[in-house]
Amino acid sequence: VGFISVPQLVKKHFQSFYLGNFMKEPEIEQIYKPSIYKTIDYNSYKIGNLKFNISKKYPLNYSTPLPAISEGYVFEYIKAGIFPQLINETDTKSGFIWKKLNSKEKNEAENVINSINNLYKQK
Known about the structure:
Elements: H1 2-5, H2 7-13, H3 19-22, H4 29-32, E1 42-47, E2 50-55, H5 71-80, E3 82-88, E4 91-100, H6 103-119
Antiparallel strand pairs: 1-2, 3-4
């Protein structure tokens, strides 16, 4: 906690602590006025038995409803030929398993990739 609240102290005693070089001094306003994050739009997709959400043109999913997967991970999973699937289709709390994609799921995955890529095309 000390390195967050007093970065100058950490930089002084640990010269190899480079993160402190990028941190600015804390301000009193941070205590009573929290940062505001705008809501990011998202798209919903389905591959196999997993219905999931991906933020539009944003790598993080802090405000996206669960289950949420970052688009970069979706590309990696599909490239590897696997995708997470629900153990119990009615209960997400039961967890996920990795499943090799069959031909139907590969088509669904290709549609997801095309949809993501279309978001970035210039109009």
